[in-house]
Design goal:
The complex is a heterodimer of chains A (176) and B (73).
Chain A lengths: L16 H10 L3 H25 L3 H29 L23 H8 L4 H25 L3 H25 L2
Chain B lengths: L14 H10 L6 E4 L3 H6 L6 E2 L2 H7 L9 E3 L1
Parallel strand pairs in B: 1-2, 1-3
The chains are: A mainly alpha (176), B alpha/beta (73).
Amino acid sequence: MEGGIDAWNGLAAGGAYEAGLAYFSRASRPEELISLSFALEEGNRVFYERISMELKEEEAASIFRSMGQAEERHKETLRELHARVTGKGGDPAQPEGVEAGAFLEGGAPLQETLDWAKGKTLEEILELAIAMESNALDRYIKMGRAVTDERSREVFLALSREEQKHLERMTSLLDR
Amino acid sequence: MGFFDYFKPVPIWTAEEVRAFLRERSAESYNLIDVRQPEEYEGGHLPGARLLPMAELKDRLGDLDRSKPTITY
């Protein structure tokens, strides 16, 4: 790619490759990856919902509300996959050290991020949301590679395509 | 790799061309490789990119699926 990463201009995911691999190798069983995804989707859902209540611009608030609803649908997809993989209904168990809803994609604590967002401009919040969605896209692609179970792979890759759409939606709002 | 493989042209895409390609294709249909150092990768990378530092590239080429297009940066 001409110009390398400097030419990319946004939509980059952060975090150490080793850290991701270490988690995936420790938690490479599909049910553990599902649990981690579920916990992070819940964090994002709460974030989008709370932010939508704070935003004054109606169109932006509506987009954030629908993003929160999309994360809830992702949770439902993960619930179904979890039931199929484990034979157990209900929410996936909490992954070790990650309380459901306590963290956002990328690892930022939810409450600290909500505190940070107070008084920030829509542009600043959108940039954060784009970073979150980029990390979610990165994670689902890597999870799709990490699992050997075909159905789990399909679901993770389908979720990565959804995250790609979210990214496009957020960036188009930022570009206006 | 044969002698004549050294003379195959490697297209250079702009960031916009790469962005359009990634948007249209599913993640399992290409190899996306970051050849920088781990700390640079940690600072930010294209979503879904694998880290394959330049120094390790020669020994780890077998990790890549040769039937798929490969994008490096």
